[in-house]
Amino acid sequence: MTEQGAVSEFDGTEPSADGPTDDQGAAREQADPRTRDESGRADSETPMDDASARTGAEAVVAALETAGVETVFGVQGGAIMPVYDALYDAEHISHVTMAHEQGAAHAADAYGAVTGEPGICMATSGPGATNLVTGIADADMDSEPVVALTGQVPSDLVGNDAFQETDTVGVTTPITKSNTFASSADDVGEDVSTAFALAASGRQGPTLVDLPKDVTTDETDVGPTEPSVPGTVSVPDRATEDAVEAAAAAISDAERPVILAGGGVVKGDASDELRAFARDHEIPVATTMPGIGAFPEDHDLALKMAGMHGTGYANMAVTTTDCLLAVGTRFDDRLTGGVDSFAPDATVVHVDIDPAEISKNVEADHPLIGDASTVVDQLGAAMDDSPDTDEWVTQCADWQDEYRMDYAVPAADSDDGAPDASSFPDEQPVKPQFVVEAVDAATDDDTIVTTGVGQHQMWACQYWTYTEPRTWVSSHGLGAMGYGLPSAVGARLAADDDQSVVCFDGDGSFLMTCQELVVAARENLDITVFVLNNEAIGMVKQWQDAFFDGRRMASEYPWVPEFDTLAEAFGADGFRIESYDDAPDVIEDALATDGPAVVDVYIDPTEDVYPMVPSGGDNGQFALSEDHL
Amino acid sequence: MSGELSDRQGLPGPAPESRRRPEGRRTSQGVRVDPEAEAEHPSRRTVISALVEHEPGVLARVSGLFSRRQFNIESLTVADTQNDDWARITVVVEEPDPGIDQVEKQLEKVVPVIHVRELEADAVARELVVLKVDADRPEEVHAITEMYRGKTLDAGPRTVTVELTGDEQKIDDAVDAFRQFGIREIARTGQTALARGETKTAVVPDHLK
What we know:
The structure holds two protein chains of two kinds.
Chain A: H1 4-10, H2 23-31, E1 54-55, H3 56-66, E2 71-74, H4 81-87, E3 94-97, H5 101-115, E4 119-123, H6 127-141, E5 146-152, H7 168-172, E6 178-181, H8 185-200, E7 206-212, H9 213-217, E8 219-220, H10 241-253, E9 257-261, H11 263-267, H12 271-281, E10 285-287, E11 302-305, H13 312-320, E12 323-327, H14 333-336, E13 347-352, E14 366-369, H15 372-382, H16 390-402, H17 432-442, E15 448-451, H18 455-463, E16 472-473, H19 484-494, E17 501-506, H20 507-513, H21 517-522, E18 527-533, H22 538-547, H23 563-570, E19 573-577, H24 583-592, E20 597-602
Parallel strand pairs in A: 2-3, 2-4, 4-5, 5-7, 6-7, 9-10, 9-12, 10-11, 12-13, 13-14, 15-16, 15-17, 17-18, 18-20, 19-20
Antiparallel strand pairs in A: 1-8
Chain B: E1 25-26, E2 32-33, E3 44-53, H1 58-68, E4 73-80, E5 86-95, H2 97-109, E6 113-118, E7 124-134, H3 138-147, E8 151-155, E9 159-166, H4 168-178, E10 183-188, E11 192-194
Antiparallel strand pairs in B: 1-2, 3-5, 3-6, 4-5, 7-9, 7-10, 7-11, 8-9
């Protein structure tokens, strides 16, 4: 990001004795005979003694180590160099150099989504920090735990429009849970610990610590502390018993209850409790998009995702319910459609750890503020009777049958219901839904799926059968195209070694961050990217066809690269699926690749995403095809 | 998947118009209502007081929050308290009840905020205004200033500048009364307030005292 020579010229600091800050210094670092072992970690000649003087940068690294951080994603640059220099000696932290800071933020976000612990991203001041912004905003919208550490120009230059100076705290205030300008080497360790604790606690989210270069180079004798949240912050756990009793009574009395499981169920590790509650009381379960995986989609009570591109049966159930138990959801407009027609007959029981989500978009008749797993357990204990749902469950099953998620394919199923490519005519373009189902069939249940944003993302929601929490990693609230590949990098490093990571991307999304393939190749990360290529920003094209008289302005690409060839240039393996015939073998080969693989899938460019509730529309009036819009 | 669908786009199932629709509805604020009833909540004006840790950026954070969430604020004041580590922010908002509730909850989420609440209608609230008028009729200006128990801060051949304090209503009335002289400039502080009598404006948890 930064020319190192320029930094020492502009930032007014003397090159430190042990840190290269000029061109020759940088060159020396390349040739430095001090060895780093093959894992990329430094040898431990200079173990850190907690009581001795250290730099602010070392205090930052000590704070991360004390918090248990093992992986950091980032990009070097002038103002952050002291912190990177301190990482050189960190035995327990490995750093993944990303191609672009946006990639670092998305990777950290996905790392946080998969592990539940904060993902860490680092960048220099100015452009480094502003490049993180999309990823930080994404984490904020999706309540993912992320800590961003940004370099900053030395304190005495702040406000002077110095080289690579940006008011990072100002820029990121609206998109962080908390952010801090580190004011001294003595305090910087605690600033980082606190940022870590805030990102991880309560409703998770991104935090940021801005690190001026003088603060990270000054010395301090303050040792690291365990992360803890400031005294002004209280984290709710149990809901009040009276409220729980009243809510349980409302659920018991319901005739048409529905559970709506949001991302908070996944983040709050409440999936087991929620599953038990639903099964014990025979209540159908719909999820929001971030809630995917909270409830097994192959279960009889599963309605799958509700909302704009949710299943018809989930939307019928949510629209018709007389009692909605909503857990860990903020009632986003993509879920509710127009709130005037959202679950209009429902008594709403809303469980959330963030009191500000209660009655923000949809009024809660029974607000239950607390941790999702604790409160669902409380509710379970308070339920005297199960609601009588036999008729209602049958009704939901009938809707599942009426509004099947079938898609048009040119040939019939094989006998066992699995997609059978062999019988499809070769000249027919491949349906994207088929590819999602075929990859699902070829992988284990604990496989992690990441996506970009657009049509491919919706097909990955709709046609993959998710059964476990933390296996669906996507950009939900922000809708950041380009999320897919860097999040696959982060998910790969967070996942168990025997867990597979696949990314469904669109050609448009992939082109926004495909440079991160270099990271996957360099680190030999076993990820498989399926680019569902329709040579268009497909979702925009679909909307243009539906709402803009088919005037396809700037949505179709007259030329896209050969993504398999591009992958090989980056050092990944490239594959291509042009027909149904190709699909089974190519999918198998790509998944078998030990390292990054990219499959360029030529999908049917006429395929659109349905069902669809137009923006602000009535969920119960979802369209099944364009002529319903 | 099904082969019979091969000739069309879209999914199977009854068309939207054939589906049974619930009769209920909600307001734009997500409140379930009787379909026949009035849909909107009226706005009301109220004072919200927040005790915050006195640190750089807290005012920017709070004012940014108001603009980002489109809260309708009439005034915002911030200054020190009896404790150097704390500052008090007083905000006058005009919102429907769900909006006032959101203002409080969103403020509560800001990390340096110690306590937030809406003050009672009987809270002691005052505003200060400095007002500059033409000095053509100085005796009359003086008389009006006296009536509102104001103070003359500056009197010159062409302008008179007065200071007035009072509740919002009094200040509004006073400004109206001064219009006859030709108001050149006005500076108003916005309201600041404390709860009345023994009632605490803010409750500070023991571990922060």
